[in-house]
Amino acid sequence: MGASGGIFRKNPVFEVEARLILADAGGMRAATLPPLPRVEELLKAFQEQSLSLRFQPDVEESYQQMRSGPRLKSFRLTGLTGLFLYDLFLFLDSPLFGLDFGRSLVVRLGLVTPLALLTIAAAGLVRGFWQELLIGFSMLPAAAGLLFLYQGTPSLVGIGQTALIIVLMYSSGVIRPGFRGSALALPVWLAGDSIFLAWNGELSGSQSVQAVSLVWTAAGIALMTSFWLERHERSGYLLQMRNDAQNAALNAINGELVRLSMVDPLTGIPNRRAFDAALKAAWSCAATLRQPLAILMMDLDEFERFNELHGRPYGDTVLFHVARRLRDCLGDAAMVARYGGEEFIALMPEMDLARAVERASQVCQCVRATSLPPSAGHYGVTVTISIGVASLIPEAGLSAVELLRTADANLYQAKYLGRNRVFPAA
Predict the structure, then answer these.
(1) Residue 20, Cβ neighbours under 10 Å: how many?
(2) What's the rounded Cα separation, in Å, for the pair 64 and 61?
(3) Is 390:370 a contact under the CB 8 Å cutoff?
(4) CA Rg, the chain, in Å?
């Protein structure tokens, strides 16, 4: 907030203006999100195009970035879980299906497991389409291993087909590769199954047709599952984006309301409400640290007569220029606020009375030297200000009201002694 920005991060006295800065930052954060109307258009277009699985390029890029990390984490978990379950069947191959244990050991642990682990590791090294492709093909080693184990045993063809379908359903419903990955992997699945069935020449034509039909049906269901799961995920992404955009817009509005409630609309500096909140924080801080806290209570001299001579619109212009001049003059040393009418007030932490009076004298000079625009033929218009100064170290039994009361009484003395001065004097 202007020249006073640096110290706001150092002292609780400026907590209020820091909140105003954060309110502005909330609006900046909202600006980094797509505007709410555009998000609504994207969501509507996506819902209307029931077979679409692509966004506009910029949204597609952000979507892919968003899903890459969680998808990789999910793939690692479900892939390792599936591999563990797959390897458990090593102990059932021989007693249930009469398979050679050594052959099962070589296929499951010697071939499929290393390939699966390699695929899981490789998925973390790529992004986008290639990651999607690896996930889509990740269960192929398991399927190929099963078909190889059951190949050449006509009585186990049904078991092999069932196992293939289970692996296929686990891939599409649990691992959940993207639709593109599934669409590219499924033809390989089906080709492998066709080879498996061809090697089992003992099957009749009708048995082969039944087996192929069963796997093709499962493949179709798996493909549809992948499509609708991805579409649901994409729709959820747009809904979340809309929710974020709505929250950002609401936060921006709330931030603006906070700012407006604590900023004087005429001068653009903090108002009395903001000052009261800052004084409370500053008083508590000064009491804790045993440090002095000073206030400058300032009032433009004979401003009512000034308004009568030049008009209230011009008086408002003068208030605006004086407010800016006060803040520029005090800089990082104080929080300047409009206290009401032609009254201003400055809050200065860690400032004893002598230094506060010195700064107040500088303020008097700054205001006298303020360059004001001409008023209805009057050139060289000037204003002066009277300032009451108070400073104390908060102690038990005292309150910030005492500090304000002392500064107000000293302002009255400055007026009584002739205006355009500071009381107590340097």
Answers:
(1) 21
(2) 5
(3) no
(4) 38
Upstream peptide bond of 424 is cis (omega within 30 degrees of 0):
yes
pLDDT tens per residue across span 133-152: 899 999 888 888 888 887 76
What pLDDT shows up at residue 5?
Answer: 36
Q: How far apart, in Å, are the Cα atoms of 407 and each of 128, 152, 207, 261? A: 67, 101, 102, 25
Q: What is the DSSP string of 363-398?
A: HHHHHHT-----BTTB-S----EEEEEEEE---TT-
How far from chain centre, in Å, is Cα 306? 50
Q: What is the mean pLDDT of residues 48-59?
A: 86
* DSSP state, residue 200: -
Torsion of CA 185, 186, 190, 193, to 10 degrees: 60
Task: Please give the pLDDT value at position 347.
Answer: 96
pLDDT at 425: 84
Q: Which residue type sits at 344?
A: F
| Phi, psi (rounded to 5 degrees) for 152 | 85, 0
Strands 343-349, 335-340: parallel, antiparallel or unpaired by DSSP?
A: antiparallel
Give me the count of residues in the chain: 426
User: Of 41-55, 70-84, 409-423, which gets the smallest average pLDDT?
Assistant: 41-55
Rounded-to-integer distance, Cα 32 and Cα 289, Å = 40
First vs last Cα of the chain: how many Å apart?
30
Report whether 357 contacts 424 (CB < 8 A): yes
Q: In the β-sheet with 343-349, what is the strand arrangement from edge to edge?
A: 335-340, 343-349, 293-300, 385-392, 422-423
Q: Name, of 119-133, 242-256, 303-317, 344-358, the range with top average pLDDT.
A: 344-358
* Higher pLDDT pick, 157 / 184: 184
- Our CA dihedral for 10, 29, 267, 370, rounded to 10 degrees, sits at 60
Q: Are 184 and 136 in contact (CB under 8 A)?
A: yes
- Helix, strand or coil for residue 243? helix
Structural domains of the chain, ranges and CATH numbers in brackets: 33-245 (no CATH), 272-423 (3.30.70.270)
- Please give the Cα distance from 133 to 128 (Å, whole number): 9
State whether residue 153 is helix, strand or coil. Answer: coil
Nearest to 299 by CA among 356, 361, 359, 343: 343
Q: How far is CA 161 from CA 113, 166, 184, 375, in A?
A: 21, 9, 21, 95
Q: What is the pLDDT of residue 202?
A: 59
CA angle 60, 64, 68 (to 5 degrees): 175
